[in-house]
Design a protein that fits this description.
3 domains, 392 residues, mainly alpha, 3 strands, flat
């Protein structure tokens, strides 16, 4: 007689397969057929291992099964099944699969946990921090330098080993400064806070100010948007969110169906930079754009994320997907701009409306007032109107 966990898994795979077929997935779609084979083999693997239900959907089990079966697509197939089971209330949380990485010494891993808990960064950000810490650890090992003996000239020499753009160096220094502050303030491992000393060359005129769209360009963008396909409906809603609420691409990608209140005309952003959730009013045009996508463009899926990919198994759209499709829409409108220009345009509109710099800071979700001050330097349209009664 098969163990209880195996019976539950067997029934769950059958239910999931019926659900996929009910969605009228095209016959012969490779991912659909491949997932079915992988899940059947996973059932055999679970029976062979006599595995308990609560141990089936863990990163460790996925990696063990992937190694055992040789299926490169095993993580994707099991994650798709887990998303379905989570929506049915059969498991407590969907499977989180990340790329395997080698562990660092405890102090580095402890900082990564601290960083993840305190700032709630994206997976991409955390991966970037891990990468620079791994490189630093390797450099200190080759140079026979203990972490407690770290000096600023060691860090300067480490930074000199990279043949990358200045923008990439800036990101590396940013990640390192967080680690240095942790070593000094939280762990008392180094005798001096080296974070303020780790700086790049003065930027002065090299620093790029935020770029934004003029009213005629905004009109041109929205006039060019079409709603013939599900992808176009999704892009239409994304553009409205970026322009009308000034949301970052990563914030747009993380919106769930539960965050949108059509009745209250509100949107809750739960995962904002700095960890401060906020509830924003939704303009009528944005509500209609979201409603159109949900009712006519969004794939049928157990996932609660608002924006999904349009290929089976319909994953949550990443921030890169948001950036790519908004930028493509702007390019098709003949605008030499990027997705972030819409966020910057939102900030300019707030200033034109007479909002204070502190109000703009809160509405933009800035952690530092200096980030908001940048917009004051480019608000030339309002300055000309006041000083010269001139309009651009």
């Amino acid at each position: 007689m098969a163990p209880e966990g195996s019976r539950i898994l067997n029934d769950s795979i059958m239910d999931y397969t019926r659900w996929v077929k009910s969605m009228e997935v095209k016959k012969g779609r490779p991912s659909h057929l491949r997932y079915t084979r992988i899940l059947i083999d996973f059932l055999i693997y679970v029976i062979h291992k006599d595995m308990a239900w609560e141990n089936m959907f863990t990163p460790e089990t996925v990696e063990a099964f992937r190694t055992y079966s040789g299926y490169k697509g095993a993580p994707s197939a099991l994650r798709a099944l887990s998303d379905y089971l989570f929506s049915q209330g059969k498991i407590d949380q969907p499977l989180q699969v990340s790329k395997p990485h080698s562990s660092l010494p405890d102090i580095y891993e402890q900082y990564l946990s601290y960083h993840a808990q305190s700032l709630q960064p994206s997976a991409g950000n955390l991966s970037g921090v891990r990468r620079i810490l791994r490189l630093l650890h390797g450099y200190l090992g080759r140079e026979n330098i203990r972490l407690s003996d770290l000096k600023i000239h060691h860090l300067d020499a480490f930074m000199a080993t990279f043949e990358v753009s200045e923008n990439t160096r800036r990101i590396y220094r940013y990640h390192l400064r967080g680690f240095l502050r942790y070593l000094f303030h939280e762990r008392k491992i180094i005798k001096r806070d080296l974070a303020p000393l780790l700086v790049g060359p003065p930027m002065f005129a090299q620093r790029k100010l935020p770029k934004f769209l003029r009213p005629k360009q905004v009109k041109k963008l929205f006039d060019s948007l079409t709603l013939s396909t599900p992808t176009q409906m999704r892009t239409y809603a994304m553009v409205h969110l970026a322009y009308s609420l000034g949301l970052r691409p990563v914030e747009i990608s993380r919106i769930t169906l539960d965050d949108v209140s059509f009745q209250q005309a509100e949107l809750t952003i739960r995962e904002r930079k700095g960890g401060n959730p906020v509830t924003l009013p939704l303009p009528e045009k944005v509500i209609k754009a979201i409603a159109l996508y949900v009712t006519k463009g969004r794939p049928e899926s157990p996932s609660r994320y608002l924006f999904l990919t349009h290929q089976f198994p319909f994953r949550p759209a990443s921030s890169n997907t948001v950036v790519g499709h908004i930028s493509r829409a702007m390019k098709q409108a003949g605008l030499p701009s990027s997705a972030y220009w819409l966020r910057h345009t939102y900030a300019q509109d707030l200033l034109h409306m007479g909002r204070s710099i502190y109000e703009v800071k809160e509405m933009m979700g800035h952690q530092n007032i200096q980030s908001t001050h940048r917009y004051l330097h480019i608000n030339t349209e309002l300055m000309r109107k006041v000083l010269f009664d001139e309009k651009l």
